[in-house]
Amino acid sequence: MKTLSKKVTNYLGLVLAALIAASVFIPSITIAQEARAEFDEGRYRINIAGRQRMLTQRMAKAVCYVHEGHEVDMHLEMLEGDYHLFSDTLDILLNGGGEHNLAPETDRRTVEELGHVAKHWAPLSEIITRAVETGVVSDEDEEFVDTHDLELLEDSNHAVSLIEQNYANPNTLNMATAITLNIFGRQRMLAQRSAKDLCYVATGLHPDKQRADLDETQGMFSISLDAIQFGLPEMGIAPPPTEEIAAQLGIVAKIWHDMDEVFLAVINGAAPTDEQITFIAFESVLLQEEMNKAVQMYSSH
């Protein structure tokens, strides 16, 4: 394992500090446990709230891909599904209901934060609706998404943190596993964000800003995956507990390595080709699927 920089340890330290301060675990840890006979409302709320973070970036990515004409049908279908999933989840978190008939949210801070999410979601949802109905994304709509999608991500991050504090059971998992899964939860979002950044570099819209964001996103994903795959005891991150999990992380690392070659070239100034953009579109979907498998293995271990 490579020597970790101060930037790496600072980032992972923030993850650890957040977990200890809130005594929480991430949404993703509930994936394999939702099938338990006794429904756990807290776990469910945390899981669906955490998923919203990833959806903000997957939708922004799909908007860019539709505008640029890359795998348009696939991304329009993605936009339609994610639009309904994000909207329905936000409504359930605020007002209750859904398949598990949740109660309406009563915590004042959480209601306020979800209100901020709804405020930033409204104009973005209109853009997505237009894209799905017309099959195209205008220059103006693409630039609006590029300017405002991170506001929605930030609000969603704040909301899930509050929901974790209110509903999580700190005795569910040991701290080492919780830290690993917390990082994995952010990896799902980062995988979509890096693919989005690559597409926006190709548009020529604020390319320096897009490359800087891709550099940061790529770096966070790479260092976190490295720590999960090999362990980092000084930060409380244990190596994979079984050979099966280690092998699955190897699959994740292989997919990311292939994607990373493209990202690093673009970060260093190369213009992404059409072939590379299409490659990243499909690989980002595959990467998420394989990461979900790894999370399920950790959750059931």
From the alpha carbons, calculate the radius of gyration and give it in angstroms: 19 Å
Q: Looking at the structure, what is the overall shape?
A: globular
**SS-based class:** mainly alpha
Q: Helix content range of the residues, please?
A: over 70%
Q: Calculate the terminal CA-CA distance, rounded to whole Å.
A: 24 Å
Please report the first level of CATH classification, the CATH class of the largest domain: Mainly Alpha
β-strand amount: under 5%
Unreliably modeled segments: 20-37
CATH architecture of the largest domain: Up-down Bundle
CATH topology of the largest domain: Four Helix Bundle (Hemerythrin (Met), subunit A)
Average pLDDT reading: 86
Report on the biggest sheet.
none
**Number of helical stretches of at least 4 residues:** 9
* Topology pattern, helix = H, strand = E: HHHHHHHHH
How many independent structural domains?
2
What is the number of strand segments?
A: 0
Describe the model:
The chain is mainly α. The protein folds into two domains: 1-23 and 172-301, Four Helix Bundle (Hemerythrin (Met), subunit A), CATH 1.20.120; 41-168, de novo design (two linked rop proteins), CATH 1.20.1440. The chain is 76% helix and 0% strand. The protein has nine helices and no strands. Helix 2 packs antiparallel against helix 3 (72-95), helix 3 packs antiparallel against helix 4 (108-134) and helix 8 packs antiparallel against helix 9 (274-300). The longest helix is centred in the middle third of the chain and has 29 residues, at 139-167. The model is unreliable at 20-37 (pLDDT under 50).
